[in-house]
Amino acid sequence: MVMAFSNKFGHLALVCGNKSEVATGYSTLYGDTAGGFAPIKDLYKTELYKVAKKYNEIHNKEIITKSILEKPPSAELRPNQKDEDKLPPYDILDKILFNYIERGKSYNELLEMGLNEEIVKNVINMVEKSEWKRRQLPAGIKLSELSFGKERKMPITKKYRFW
């Protein structure tokens, strides 16, 4: 529907996926990844919440409603679904993603940071298996030290493990 309106009226549809979702493939092709520009694809979910709160603070009013900022994140594909059904809590996920992507830390280095082994394995697997989805996203704003695309490309098909 969004793309139909975009085409009919000549508006630019914005992709709403953030870096946490883009990194792990926790997005729907032709759903929340459909659009012509991805303004927040280089902001981790935890950063996005900070930006939203700061935006309200700057404008001295609740532009982004409290209910949006306080409700548990969900893809809303089925009743009572929450992102944490499939993903670790975003503070943990984003810590792993930041250190793995931005800092280039290895699986073993992530474990040395005291992170849970199973969670680290799952997150790295999600990141590595989702390259094909990232290749289909439109351009976005570079906001981090290392963004997906030009700065971090991995083969779409590969058969190696990091542990």
List the helices and strands and how they pair.
Layout: H1 2-9, H2 19-24, H3 45-59, H4 66-70, H5 90-102, H6 107-112, H7 117-129, H8 131-134
Question: Can you characterise this structure?
Answer:
Helix 5 crosses helix 7 (117-129). The protein has eight helices and no strands. It is globular, with a radius of gyration of 17 Å. The mean pLDDT is 90. It has helices at residues 2-9, 19-24, 45-59, 66-70, 90-102, 107-112, 117-129, 131-134. The longest helix has 15 residues, at 45-59. The termini are far apart. It is an all-alpha fold.
Label this structure with key terms.
single chain, 163 residues, mainly alpha, 8 helices, 0% strand
